[in-house]
């Protein structure tokens, strides 16, 4: 039920990029119970994060919407049922049939089992793995014509260290320092850690399941590359922020892998 694009053909590289909120698809069986509009749903998804992920040889891009199954929440909360589950948005027009709800939970379990299998396969070849959990976030919650939300709470990139052993914090700080202040258009990127999004269920699960075998920072890009209300993309801005990120993350990966034995 969860549609996913896999590219895991380069087992020589101990890096895996994930874009679990990229998707917009809703399974047909669920669509008739879904009341939220396409544009409202799209606004709360993370479009174009798959375009960051696909720059890495090993990547997993989820095409199914988080409004079907949210893979970054605990199992008991992964299906949005009430408005409070989804930023106050009414997502369902009637109660989900029990069989359909069970199918959605089963798809959640299947996806995580597949993820574990793929990570174990890579860890059989490498002592340590870097997993990049890629997301984006809104910064104009007041409406399409309102001022942007305060920069103090909405840096351009947030690096989350949720449930990560503190000995790995210096690796995340290294990436932050290298991204912070880099030119983006006519201003400098503001990059901070754990401001709003320290990381969700996925990085917590991975650090608990594979202690001392991987690092999984949550990487949140503010939607400065698109209009979050209309959904319109600014392709130049997307290319530029992706260029800056890739320029810094590639050498960071090499430094981090070299530093792991001493941490």
Gist?
By secondary structure, the protein is of the alpha/beta class.
Q: Quaternary state, please?
A: single chain
User: What percent of the residues sit in helical stretches (DSSP H or I)?
Assistant: 25-40%
Largest sheet: 8 strands, mixed
Q: Name the CATH superfamily assignment.
A: Zn-dependent exopeptidases
Number of domains in the coordinates? 1
Total count of strands: 10
| Mean residue pLDDT | 95
Instruction: Briefly note the structural class of the backbone.
Output: alpha/beta
The helix count comes to 7
The span between the termini is: 40 Å
pLDDT < 50 stretches: none
Q: Can you tell me the overall shape?
A: globular
CATH topology description: Aminopeptidase
Approximate strand percentage: 15-25%
Q: What's the CATH class, please?
A: Alpha Beta
Order of helices and strands: EEHHHEHEEHEEEHEEH
Mind telling me the C-alpha Rg?
18 Å
CATH architecture tag:
3-Layer(aba) Sandwich
Model description:
The chain has 263 residues and is of the alpha/beta class. It has a single domain (4-262), classed as 3-Layer(aba) Sandwich (Aminopeptidase), CATH 3.40.630. The protein has seven helices and ten strands. The chain has helices at residues 28-31, 38-44, 49-53, 98-123, 169-179, 201-209, 235-259, and strands at residues 4-8, 15-19, 58-62, 129-137, 157-160, 183-184, 187-188, 191-193, 214-215, 218-222. Strands 1, 2, 3, 4, 5, 8, 9 and 10 form an eight-stranded mixed beta sheet that branches. Strands 6-7 form a two-stranded antiparallel sheet. A hairpin with a 2-residue loop joins strand 6 (183-184) and strand 7. The longest helix is centred in the middle third of the chain and has 26 residues, at 98-123. The N and C termini lie far apart (40 Å). The mean pLDDT is 95.
């Amino acid at each position: 039920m969860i549609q996913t694009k896999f590219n895991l053909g380069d087992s020589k590289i101990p890096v895996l990029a994930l874009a679990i909120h990229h998707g917009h698809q809703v399974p047909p069986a669920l669509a008739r119970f879904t009341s939220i509009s396409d544009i409202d749903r799209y606004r709360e998804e993370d479009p174009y994060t798959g375009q960051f992920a696909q720059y890495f040889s090993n990547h997993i891009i989820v095409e199914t919407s988080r409004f079907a199954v949210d893979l970054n929440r605990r199992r008991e909360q992964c299906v949005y049922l009430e408005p409070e589950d989804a930023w106050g948005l009414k997502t369902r027009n009637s109660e989900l049939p029990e069989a359909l709800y069970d199918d959605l939970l089963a798809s959640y379990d299947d996806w995580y089992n597949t993820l574990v299998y793929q990570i174990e396969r890579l860890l059989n070849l490498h002592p340590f793995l870097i997993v990049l959990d890629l997301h984006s976030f809104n910064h104009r919650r007041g409406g399409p014509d309102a001022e942007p939300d305060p920069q103090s709470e909405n840096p351009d990139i947030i690096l989350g260290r949720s449930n990560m052993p503190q000995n790995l914090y210096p690796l995340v700080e290294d990436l932050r320092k290298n991204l912070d202040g880099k030119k983006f258009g006519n201003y400098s990127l503001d990059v901070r850690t754990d401001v709003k999004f320290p990381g969700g269920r996925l990085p917590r699960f991975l650090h608990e399941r594979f202690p001392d075998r991987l690092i999984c920072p949550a990487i949140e890009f503010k939607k400065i590359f698109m209009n979050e209300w209309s959904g319109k993309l600014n392709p130049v801005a997307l290319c530029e922020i992706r260029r800056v990120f890739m320029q810094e993350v590639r050498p960071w990966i090499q430094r981090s892998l070299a530093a792991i034995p001493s941490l």
